[in-house]
Amino acid sequence: MDFNNLLIETAAGVATLTVNRPQALNALNGEVLTELAAAFYQLEYDPAVKAVVLTGAGEKAFVAGADIKEMAAMNSYEGHQFALKGQHCMMAMEKMRTPVIAAVNGFALGGGLELALGCDFIYASEKAKLGFPEVTLGIMPGFGGTQNLARLIGKNRANELIFTGKMVTADKALAWGIVNELFPPEELLPKAQEAAAAIAGVGTLGVAYAKNAIANGLNMTKEDGFRYEASLFGVLFATADQKEGMAAFVEKRKAVFTGK
Ligand code: CAA
């Protein structure tokens, strides 16, 4: 499928998905959201893709938010629909079996930070700036940010970030646990692709089920989560990957996983 605002490059099991609208700092308008949802679907069902890196085009921004120029004319109904459309993208990433790593190469603001938070984990450039400026526009985060940020870093830090609308440095985002690791700008994409390649090289089903157990378990009691984990663990013993992974260990050779 051809996209007007996205680039996709796939190599050795890793797809690099780039939001490519640098003239608007990669802001998310309705068309970009439609394309992102389609791209996630396409990547999820592409057997050549085992992990995805999501980044922004240009040196300045990952994504500078939802498109303010498009939102400026929206009425309440349209605003609601726009939020649902953005949330659909975030949920699509959460529901994908394929892990998605955010490589935050610059500004990740508002809907841009929400896009990064929708990924499975975040690497960032040392020069990145992150924040939720929505309140400075008279609105609030609408693409899952209030939910994902509070779950990730806790209520009080999420409150501070969202209520003040102030940007934080990459260092602070690291200290607060929003970002897993920081890299010099030129190393960010290769490092994210390296992590994705590591994921692409292990048992695809084990990764997919672990992702499912973590995401769903967060909404369960601990006891239910344990039960759910054990069920998925058991299912993996019916897979070729489990047979191959353990045989390779015993035979002291590298496993060749098929994702079956
Ligand atoms: N929407 C639409 N266009 C945007 C944009 C956005 N979120 N962010 C930047 N742009 C556009 C600018 O309008 C500008 O276009 P023109 O040259 O045509 O005027 C171009 O990108 C370059 O931006 P700047 O000239 O502003 O660049 P800068 O370096 O001076 O500033 C910035 C960079 C601090 C990131 C600034 O662009 C900015 O504050 N952007 C808006 C950030 C923001 O408020 N994001 C939250 C949006 S609300 C949201 O996301 C809601 C939600 O939760 C769903």
Automatic annotation (TrEMBL):
InterPro entries registered for this protein in UniProt: ClpP/crotonase-like_dom_sf, Enoyl-CoA_hyd/isom_CS, Enoyl-CoA_hydra/iso, Enoyl-CoA_hydra_C
Any one Pfam family match given in the protein's UniProt record, by short name: ECH_1
BP GO annotations: fatty acid beta-oxidation
MF terms (GO), sorted A to Z: hydro-lyase activity
UniProt KW 4Fe-4S keyword: no
UniProt entry keywords in alphabetical sequence: Lyase
PANTHER family linked: ENOYL-COA HYDRATASE, MITOCHONDRIAL (PTHR11941:SF54), ENOYL-COA HYDRATASE-RELATED (PTHR11941)
Family: Belongs to the enoyl-CoA hydratase/isomerase family.
The protein's name in its UniProt record: Enoyl-CoA hydratase
Organism (species): Geobacter pickeringii
